[in-house]
């Protein structure tokens, strides 16, 4: 019996209109374009504005675009998995809300929270549902309104993050394309270095937690940077060795867009050229669960059927991992 493989058959993304520049940030906190560019490589980031607008709105726009692009009726979708750390609310799941906003009625849906690794955790989970033979059309949504948990008086974090929504269609194939392998790892000690202190069951929201500004991102930059550089590179190199992939055999590395120095260090360890790396951090910043799909969306017209691609991410938890896949279609013919 021919093995069923899961393949990406479409990708779409949506970003808000408002662009927050380094120059504007310099008016808000003690920073400068040079300071930000030197440490992160970020020039601009998109921010979702508007009363009552949340993560589900960006995710829904991405899903609508994906359905149109892939000529898929909402009733055909079997499952939605949403990777996010900024859900619209504690419950219901943001995936539930996105399904309602896009008219998807025959699917079940749930959220995954693995911080910046959520996008690859969710992709692997989606692929497993397809490979089981149970489902035919699964949508992975990666969306985050990071501006909702960013402290714009903290220059070490407010310069990094942006808002975006993305959606990827995963379907079965019997061809020699699609998801080949994944490696996922985590180490809970990292939770002390990167987290949101209040708002959960340990520290419910109160006047005290709000006054102490504990509902924003807390990050110990050096500890996170050091671990991210080693682990994202380690797992990418491990995937190459496991499948005997030489640098010249790899069409693209699609790394989580956390920091330009982390991306460059990962590429060096893998022995690949910068031209083989998708990088758009300078325009969008770190959009957490949306960074990898954003890259695939922007580079879609350059992707060719059979391209060897490695996706790699690192996030809070700590969580990290990589996916090896062969691209399933010629992007130029899919737009």
Strand and helix layout:
Layout lengths: L4 E10 L4 E3 H4 L7 H7 L4 E3 L8 H15 L9 E5 L10 H8 L6 E5 L5 H14 L6 E8 L9 H4 L4 E11 L4 E9 L7 E3 L10 H5 L5 E3 L1 H22 L9 E4 L4 H11 L10 H4 L6 H8 L9 E8 L3 E8 L9
Parallel strand pairs: 4-5, 4-6, 11-12
Antiparallel strand pairs: 1-7, 2-3, 6-7, 8-13, 9-10, 12-13
Short description:
With 335 residues, this protein is α/β, with parallel strands linked by helices. 30% of the residues lie in helices and 24% in strands.
Q: Please give the number of β-strands.
A: 13
For the termini, the CA-CA separation is: 33 Å
Write down the overall mean pLDDT.
96
Number of contiguous helices: 11
Topology order in helix (H) and strand (E) letters? EEHHEHEHEHEHEEEHEHEHHHEE
Rounded to an integer in angstroms, the radius of gyration calculated over CA atoms is: 19 Å
Indicate the percent of residues in helices: 25-40%
Instruction: Please identify, by name, the CATH architecture of the largest domain.
Output: 3-Layer(aba) Sandwich
Number of structural units classed as domains: 2
| Morphology | globular
At the first level of CATH, the class of the largest domain is: Alpha Beta
Q: Largest sheet, if any?
A: 5 strands, mixed
Q: Give the percentage of residues in beta strands.
A: 15-25%
Widest sheet, order of strands: 1-7-6-4-5
Unreliably modeled segments: none
CATH topology of the largest domain: Peroxisomal Thiolase, Chain A, domain 1
Considering the protein shown, what is the CATH homologous superfamily of the largest domain? Thiolase/Chalcone synthase
Summing up helix and strand content along with how strands pair, one would put the structural category as alpha/beta
């Amino acid at each position: 019996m021919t093995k069923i493989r899961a393949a990406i058959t479409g990708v779409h993304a949506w970003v808000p209109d408002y662009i927050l520049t380094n120059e504007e940030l310099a008016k808000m906190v003690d920073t400068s374009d040079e300071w930000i560019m030197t440490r992160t490589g970020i020039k601009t980031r998109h921010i979702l504005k508007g009363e009552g607008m949340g993560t589900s709105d960006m995710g829904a726009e991405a899903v609508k675009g994906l359905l149109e692009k892939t000529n898929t009726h909402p009733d055909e979708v079997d499952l939605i998995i949403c990777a996010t750390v900024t859900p619209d609310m504690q419950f219901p799941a943001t995936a539930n809300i996105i399904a309602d906003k896009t008219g998807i009625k025959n699917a079940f849906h749930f959220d995954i929270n693995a911080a910046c690794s959520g996008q690859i955790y969710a992709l692997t989970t989606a692929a497993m549902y397809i490979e089981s033979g149970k489902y035919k059309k699964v949508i992975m949504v990666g969306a985050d309104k990071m501006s909702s948990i960013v402290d714009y008086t903290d220059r070490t974090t407010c310069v990094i993050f942006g808002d975006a929504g993305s959606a990827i269609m995963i379907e079965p194939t019997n061809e020699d394309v699609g998801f080949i392998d994944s490696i996922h790892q985590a180490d809970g000690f990292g939770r002390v270095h990167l987290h949101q202190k209040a708002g959960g069951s340990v520290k419910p929201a109160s006047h005290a937690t709000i006054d102490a500004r504990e509902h924003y991102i807390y990050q110990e930059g050096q500890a996170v940077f050091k671990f991210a550089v080693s682990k994202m590179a380690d797992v990418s190199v491990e995937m190459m060795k496991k499948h005997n992939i030489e640098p010249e055999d790899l069409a693209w590395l699609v790394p989580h867009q956390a920091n330009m120095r982390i991306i460059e260090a990962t590429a060096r360890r893998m022995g690949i050229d910068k031209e083989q790396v998708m990088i758009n951090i300078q325009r969008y910043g770190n959009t957490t669960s949306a960074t990898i799909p954003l890259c695939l969306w922007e580079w879609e017209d350059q992707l060719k059927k059979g391209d060897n691609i490695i996706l790699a991410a690192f996030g809070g938890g700590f969580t990290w991992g990589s996916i090896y896949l062969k691209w399933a279609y010629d992007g130029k013919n899919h737009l």
